[in-house]
Amino acid sequence: METDQSELDKASASRSTAATIPSQRGELGTAVGGPVARRGVGEVVSEKIRRLVFMGELQEGERVPQREIAKALGVSSIPVREAMVALQREGVVTIEPNRGAFVNRLDSEVATELYYVFGRIYGLATRRATERASQSVVEQLVELAAQIGAESDLDKLIRLSIRFELVILRTGGSKRLRALFDPLSGIVPGNFYVTIPGSAELTRRGVSAMAEAISSRRPEAAEHACWRLIDEIGELVALRLGDRKPSPTHPGAG
C-alpha cells in the first residue's frame, strides 16, 4: 500500500512549514512575505492561530483578533471565520455568538492529556496495522524507520515521520479513527522537531521500536512502543509550554 502523495503534501503543509503571519503579536498588523495564496488559505489561517496560541501570544480567555489577522494575511474575513469554526472543532477556541472566538486553555496539563489520547489512537492503529499489513507494507514501514533513524535534516525528517504515520493509519485505522487523529497531530504548529527540542531523537528511537515490533508481527508490543513514544513526546511538549514567555503586548479586538 503506497501513501497517496497529495495526502502527504497536505499533512506536511500543515505540520512542517510556517505561513505568512507574523510570529510576534505586536506585528500582527503587518503582513510578512505578502498576502497568502488562495490555495489552502483556511488551513494557513488556522495554522497561524494555532501558532499564536501555542507560543502564548494569544492566551486563555483572550478574544482572537480576527480583523488584524485577516489584514496581516491579506485575506478577507471569510477564511478567518472558517478557520474559527475549524479551530472550535479542535478545541483551540470557543465561539460565543455576537462576541467572537475566545482562546481555550493550553498548558502543560492540557498537553499531557491531549498526547495521552493521541498516543492511544495512534497505538490502536499501530496494533491493527501490525495484524493486517501485507509483507510489502511491513517492508515499507521498516525502510521508512531506517530512513528516519539516519536523517539529520529536520525538514526531511518531518516528512518521513508523517509518511510513516500515514502508512500506519491507512493500514490500521478506519476513516473515523483517522478523523480523530488529524487534529491531535497538529497540536504543535510548524516543524515539530524544530519547535520541540529533543523530539527528533525520541522519534528515531520510538519509530525504530515500533518498526521492529511490526516486522516481527507482535501487535501488543507495537502498540506499547507507540504509547511510550507519544507519552514521552507529550512530556517534552508539556515542558516547552511551561517554558514559554508570552509577549506583554496585546492586539486589538477582532
Topology at a glance:
Layout: H1 5-15, H2 41-54, H3 66-73, H4 77-90, E1 93-96, E2 100-103, H5 108-132, H6 135-150, H7 154-172, H8 175-185, H9 192-195, H10 199-215, H11 219-243
Antiparallel strand pairs: 1-2
Features:
254 residues; mainly alpha; Arc Repressor Mutant, subunit A; Four Helix Bundle (Hemerythrin (Met), subunit A); two-stranded antiparallel sheet; 11 helices; 2 strands; 65% helix; disordered C terminus
How would you describe this protein?
- The chain has about 250 residues and is mainly alpha-helical.
- The protein has 2 domains: about 20-105, Winged helix-like DNA-binding domain superfamily/Winged helix DNA-binding domain (Arc Repressor Mutant, subunit A), CATH 1.10.10.10; about 110-240, GntR ligand-binding domain-like (Four Helix Bundle (Hemerythrin (Met), subunit A), Up-down Bundle).
- About 65% of the residues lie in helices and about 5% in strands.
- It has helices at about 5-15, 40-55, 65-75, 75-90, 110-130, 135-150, 155-170, 175-185, 190-195, 200-215, 220-245, and strands spanning about 95, 100-105.
- Strands 1-2 form a two-stranded antiparallel sheet.
- β1 (about 95) and β2 (about 100-105) form a beta hairpin.
- The protein is elongated, with a radius of gyration of 19 Å.
- It starts with a helix and ends in an 11-residue tail after the last helix.
CATH fold annotation of the largest domain: Four Helix Bundle (Hemerythrin (Met), subunit A)
CATH architecture title of the largest domain: Up-down Bundle
Radius of gyration: 19 Å
Which word captures the global form? elongated
What profile does the largest beta sheet have? 2 strands, antiparallel
Helix and strand pattern: HHHHEEHHHHHHH
CATH homologous superfamily of the largest domain?
GntR ligand-binding domain-like
Tally of alpha and pi helices: 11
Distance between the termini: 46 Å
